[in-house]
Amino acid sequence: MGVLLSYLHLYFASAALFEPVLKGWSVLYPRFRLIPSLDVFELAVLFFLSVVPYSVATIIPAWRIATADLMR
């Protein structure tokens, strides 16, 4: 859902939320139009480098403490 919303914001709304921040006070900037493209490999790499490590770092300790015998 996040990828879809960012894609829509960037290509169809012309990044209206971030445009003033990225351009700053400059008034002499050239017209820059992005061409929509979607690379599944890049999305997969971003997923595995961001979501998987954080999931492992939170799920495995939670599972270990949930299955531990605390009444020794």
Descriptive notes:
The structure is a single chain. This protein is an all-alpha fold and 72 residues long. It has 3 helices and no strands.
Quickly list its features.
single chain; 72 residues; mainly alpha; elongated
Q: How do the strands and helices of this protein lay out in sequence?
A:
Elements: H1 2-11, H2 19-23, H3 40-67
Taken in chain order, the helices and strands follow as HHH
Report strand %: under 5%
Helix and strand composition category: mainly alpha
Residues in helices, as a percent range: 55-70%
Overall spatial form: elongated
What is the number of helices?
A: 3
Q: List how many beta strands DSSP finds.
A: 0
Mean pLDDT, to the nearest integer, reads: 83
Any low-confidence stretches, pLDDT <50, length ≥5? none
What oligomeric arrangement do these chains adopt?
A: single chain
Provide the gyration radius in Å. 21 Å
Main pleated sheet: none
Distance between the termini: 45 Å
In short:
Helices cover 60% and strands 0% of the residues.
